[in-house]
């Protein structure tokens, strides 16, 4: 008998879409006004410029973090789009994996030690540009 298996980690990493992101957000617009305050965040649905599942953007007080909404530890399915919970955590609805909203740091073992994919964010005046 021959047994061949894949490493679950390799399979999970290879099935997450690696899409480019190039988006600009005017923080003077009402839809993004929460980003003007430390700990303020927005959850964005996909629109063709911000990844395959959209992104989460948070004002850390020292800048901005932008995360892909694809769960980094699971292959995409209907219930693996990351969501913000209690204004403090990013949560995967599939298995309860949790990360700190401000830093992306894993909070439980369900994350398998992985962090959400982070995009580069740069503020110029009132326009936040995000690229990957």
TrEMBL record:
It comes from the Bacteria. This is Ferredoxin subunit of nitrite reductase or a ring-hydroxylating dioxygenase. It comes from Profundicola chukchiensis.
């Amino acid at each position: 008998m021959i047994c061949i298996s894949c490493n679950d980690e390799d399979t999970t990493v290879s099935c997450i879409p690696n899409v480019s992101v190039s988006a600009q957000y005017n923080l003077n617009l009402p839809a993004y006004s929460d980003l003007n305050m430390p700990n303020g965040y927005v959850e964005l649905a996909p629109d063709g410029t911000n990844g395959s599942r959209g992104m989460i953007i948070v004002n850390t007080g020292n800048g901005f973090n932008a995360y892909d909404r694809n769960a980094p530890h699971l292959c995409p399915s209907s219930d693996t789009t990351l969501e913000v919970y209690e204004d403090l955590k990013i949560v995967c609805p599939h298995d309860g994996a949790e990360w700190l909203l401000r830093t992306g740091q894993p909070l439980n073992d369900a994350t398998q030690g992985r962090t959400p994919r982070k995009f580069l964010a740069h503020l110029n005046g009132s326009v936040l540009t995000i690229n990957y």
